[in-house]
Amino acid sequence: MESTKPQILVVEDDESIAEAVAFHLERAGMNPSVAGDGLAGLRALRTDLPDVLVLDLMLPGVDGWHIIREVRDWAPRLPVIVVTARTNEHDRVEVLSLGADDVLSKPFSMRELVARVTAALRRNAAAEAFAGREPITEGDLVIDLDRLAVTIQDANVDLTPLEFKLLCVLADHRGRAMSRDVVFRRVWGGERGHGDRSVDVLVRRLRRKVDEIPGRFTYIQTQHGVGYRLEAMPRSLPGAFARRGDLASMLAPGGPGAGRA
């Protein structure tokens, strides 16, 4: 049935690109629709939220940057894949920081685009992979894997599918550091390119939501020279403490914390 197919909205003002993208998505078993400018894209999003948004940045009227900001206000779980001719690293980092899940540079292969959309759909269906598992608790942070819900001190934390996937990956190894390469493979799939900063940008986004709010703990810790780990650390402790166990050594006679008031 048509309604069972994943709904993909393509917002692209280049008619030939939009038609090609829609054709290949349909061949892959999806149900694409196309909006030719930013305003039409916003209308379509508010009328019927798709399963994935494929978004060009340089659009007439309302540009893609504005659309990402709006979407993240009222549809935080919608996967957003940006396609753009702007290929410099600053633009890629900025787009990911705003809340996009993936960035594909023009010109791109249709096969790769379909693969990226398919991967986004898999991430958005994470509930199936985690169904039946007990909630994960770390400090005041609770990850309800059945409901795809995250709370801190009983307050809801809205995460995008990509942010939720990152949190679950770190939670599966909580207390242990994971390298950027391993995180990339577990979250995006495939291998991380040399100098790719996607992991750092996504960690920064997640920290804004779980660490930079009032609370007793910080959760996403950096282990220098290794990567990142999930571990609740009391905010009163200096950031130099890599583990809870390091507190004893810091306060031991002759240790760096010895003799402090």
Topology (elements, then pairings):
Layout: E1 7-11, H1 15-27, E2 31-35, H2 38-47, E3 52-56, H3 64-74, E4 80-84, H4 89-98, E5 102-105, H5 110-124, H6 126-130, E6 136-138, E7 141-144, E8 149-152, E9 155-156, H7 161-172, E10 178-179, H8 180-187, H9 198-210, E11 217-223, E12 227-234, H10 246-251
Walk me through the structure.
The chain has 261 residues and is of the alpha/beta class. The chain has two domains: 123 residues, Rossmann fold (3-Layer(aba) Sandwich); 124 residues, Arc Repressor Mutant, subunit A, CATH 1.10.10.10. It is 39% helix and 21% strand. The chain contains ten helices and twelve strands. The strands form three sheets. The chain has a five-stranded parallel sheet with strand order 2-1-3-4-5, with helices on both faces. A four-stranded antiparallel sheet has the order 6-7-8-9, with helices on one face.
Keywords:
10 helices, Rossmann fold, Arc Repressor Mutant, subunit A, 5-stranded parallel β-sheet, alpha/beta, 261 residues, 12 strands
Could you give a quick summary of the protein structure above?
The protein is of the alpha/beta class and 261 residues long. It has helices at 15-27, 38-47, 64-74, 89-98, 110-124, 126-130, 161-172, 180-187, 198-210, 246-251; strands at 7-11, 31-35, 52-56, 80-84, 102-105, 136-138, 141-144, 149-152, 155-156, 178-179, 217-223, 227-234. The strands form three sheets. It has a five-stranded parallel beta sheet, sandwiched between helices.
